Predict the 3D structure of the following.
Amino acid sequence: MSHFNALIQHAARHSIPLDVALEITHHCNYRCQHCYIPDFSAPNAMSTERIMVLLEELRAMGTLFLTLTGGEMFLRKDWFDIARRARSLGFALRLFTNASRITSQIAHQVSQLGSIVEITVFSMNEAVFDEITQRKGSFRATMAGIAELHKQEVQMLIKTPLMTLNNKHDESVREYALGLGAAFQSFTSIAAKKDGDRSTLALRLDATSMQHYLNGPFSGCHVARSIQEDEPLCAAASRFCNITAAGDVMACNILPGSGGNLLNQSFQQIWQHSPWLNEVRSIRRRDLDTCNTCDRLAYCGRCHAQALVEDGNMYGPSTAAQSRADLLDQMGVSFAV
């Protein structure tokens, strides 16, 4: 076992919030059709001062990986103060952005952080890109921002979420990313909104299209894994959490339900004593309905959030996971666990 995998397992077993995603704003200048954020007008309740205290709390609790995200994180004016402080505390920092707000000055500031910047690029076709974001000119704005980061030699990961609107557009994005010296990732996991709204699910690829990606360079949860009886089934609330711009501590970014709010509690109080977070992190294979005896659990990619939001039972089967496993079985994919 690698040292990294050992670290991951240790964090999960001992409920250490190793990886935290911090939404510093809900505001966004795009309106991407697949986005899981339900309300872009929600206020940024977390002040700069409260976030600075939070960073100290996270370090004390053992957080190593910190992601600053949104909304569009660069819409928050104090983003650099937050990011710079995070780096000074030793966090491995990632910045999630649509890159549309990146100017030469911002790109220079980002270059000083030594962080990874992850940018979503839906297509190299301007019309398709703008249709997904529902903002005319968004493709050109994103490309301009990426160009500024490239000039500053910032490490980038270009990501393409695949859906009905951009099916098979990933290859041209991949070529673009590699031409920049950036990493590339595509994925097909379109989720419901974090308030339970399922309207985004209509954008998921059909079975025929999914087969193309499951048999290709698709990187996802279908990779088989050994599931031990005494280990958490998911990173949510065991070694990962999502913190919203309103201060809510959530088990993950798509599982509804808050463990508590940082405006009136410390992170440690919420992480250790929240009944909701403790319930999510306590789920083991033996607790699942039906799935507990299914061999396909090792590769179906079952998700607590999908099971709850899409099928009504966090402990039950997930229709999405079952469909994914059916496809893999039909394709004759075999796994060595």
